[in-house]
Amino acid sequence: MPRFLRAVRQALPEIAKAIDVVHNCLAKGGRLIYVGSGTSGRLGALDASECPPTFGVDPSMIQYVIAGGERALANAAEASEDSSQLARATWLRESPAKRM
Predict the structure, then answer these.
(1) What is the rounded distance in angstroms from the CA atom of residue 38 to the CA atom of residue 58?
(2) Is 70 a catalytic residue?
(3) Which one is catalytic: 50, 70, 78, 94?
(4) pLDDT digits (tens, 9 = 90+) for 18-48
(5) Among 13, 67, 82, 83, which is most buried by a count of CB atoms within 10 Å?
(6) CB of 71 within 8 A of CB of 77?
């Protein structure tokens, strides 16, 4: 078995726990907020964008914050990926803690 498959298989119990936590929070009116930079931030944005049409959820239920803001979705924003000050500014500007 390839090494990556062994790693995924080994992580499955923790992945299942994370899914249960997110499900329980969403069922109680909570939200899932992806926070990332670079490729991981773009993948979080993609998933958050696809959840409403795919699963019929309210867009405010699944949100994302990406280092560098919306501009970083299409353009690399390398400086913002390594700056805690820019990360804080993006978080405050996007205000994901507030319901939309």
Answers:
(1) 26
(2) no
(3) 50
(4) 999 999 999 999 999 998 888 888 999 999 9
(5) 67
(6) yes
**Residues of 22-60 as b/e, b for ≥16 C-beta within 10 angstroms?**
eeeeeeeeebbbbbbbbeebbebbeebeebeeeeeeeee
The pTM score is 0.77
Active-site hit among 14, 70, 78, 81: 81
- Lookup: tokens for 91: 């978080």
Identity (one letter) of the amino acid at 5?
A: L
3-state SS, the chain, equals CCHHHHHHHHHHHHHHHHHHHHHHHHHCCCCEEEEECHHHHHHHHHHHHHHHHHHCCCCCCEEEEECCCHHHHCCCCHHHHCCHHHHHHHHHHHCCCCCC
Q: Which residue has the higher pLDDT, 50 or 100?
A: 50
> Does the annotation count 81 as an active-site position?
yes
